[in-house]
Structure formats: structure tokens, C-alpha cells
Amino acid sequence: MQTGVVKFFNESKGFGFIVDDATGKDIFVHITGLNGIAIKEKDRVEYEIVEGKKGLNATNVRKAN
């Protein structure tokens, strides 16, 4: 599992970005990767990374303890 902090998330559009702790890179996150949770800016999260059509995507996102 990767860890990071939500940079921003637009609930009405259903997407945002997570800053990865290990690399500092922005990882795209779509609402379908959230497993039914709600996230907001500055939330600490855990997730898996998959290769999407336009780059890396976060999936199986959950709030970190």
C-alpha cells in the first residue's frame, strides 16, 4: 500500500489528486477508486497505484490511521 495526502478533491466532478509520500508525485484519484468513503483536502490516505490511460491512478483508497 502507498500512502499520501489528498492535495484536492472535487466532489461534484468526482476526481482529485493525492501527493504520494514516497515520490512527491501527484496521483490522480477518481471517485470510483474510493470504496465508498469520502475524502477531502489534507486527509491522509492509503491506496494502490494502477496504470491508467493518462498516467497513474489511485485505487482502493482508504483513510490512513
UniProtKB/TrEMBL annotation:
Source organism, top-level taxon: Bacteria
CSD domain span: 1-63
Recorded name of the encoding gene: cspC1
Protein name: Cold shock protein (Beta-ribbon, CspA family)
Lineage: Bacteria, Pseudomonadati, Bacteroidota, Cytophagia, Cytophagales
Localization of this protein: Cytoplasm
Gene Ontology MF annotations: nucleic acid binding
UniProt keywords, alphabetically: Cytoplasm
Record-linked SUPFAM superfamilies: Nucleic acid-binding proteins
A GO cellular component annotation in the UniProt record: cytosol
SMART domains the UniProt entry points to: CSP
InterPro entries: Cold_shock_CspA, Cold_shock_domain, CSD, CSD_CS, CSP_DNA-bd, NA-bd_OB-fold
Coarse class of the protein's main subcellular location: cytoplasm
